[in-house]
Amino acid sequence: MSPRMRGWIRIGFAGPGAVIVALVVMAGMALWLPGGAAGIDNLVLPLVLVPLIWAALFFHACLDSRLGRIALVAIGLFVVHAGLVANKFLDTKSHGQPAAAGEARR
């Protein structure tokens, strides 16, 4: 692969790739973080951490010398958290209701 192509791939992972992965990680974090005393910590903490997640992905894409490692980290985070979100939306135990609505009635 040419150095010019590697540069464009790196820019893709540092720019729009970092933003997309950070937003998907934010959505997935709400599913695995504990609720806390007020029950909203799992919603607030991902919103507060999005800039930090974005910055970590951006600087990793800019500073890491191995393009494969950049892709592995970004795509791995994306796949894991997108899978969590998809699993939540495709939850068949709720019989047409969102799973969170069924849990809130308990």
Describe this structure in words.
The chain has 106 residues and is mostly helical. It has one domain (3-92). The protein has 5 helices and no strands. The longest helix is centred in the middle third of the chain and has 23 residues, at 41-63. The chain crosses the membrane at residues 12-32, 44-63, 70-90. Keywords: Membrane, Transmembrane, Transmembrane helix.
Tags for this model:
mainly alpha, 106 residues, transmembrane helix, membrane, transmembrane
Output the helix-strand order.
HHHHH
Reported for the largest beta sheet, the result is:
none
Provide mean pLDDT, rounded. Answer: 88
Helix content: over 70%
Supply the number of helical segments. Answer: 5
Q: Give the radius of gyration.
A: 17 Å
Low-confidence blocks of residues: none
Keywords: Membrane, Transmembrane, Transmembrane helix
Transmembrane segments: 12-32, 44-63, 70-90
Helix and strand layout, with pairings?
Layout: H1 3-14, H2 16-32, H3 41-63, H4 67-89, H5 99-104
Keywords: Membrane, Transmembrane, Transmembrane helix
Transmembrane segments: 12-32, 44-63, 70-90
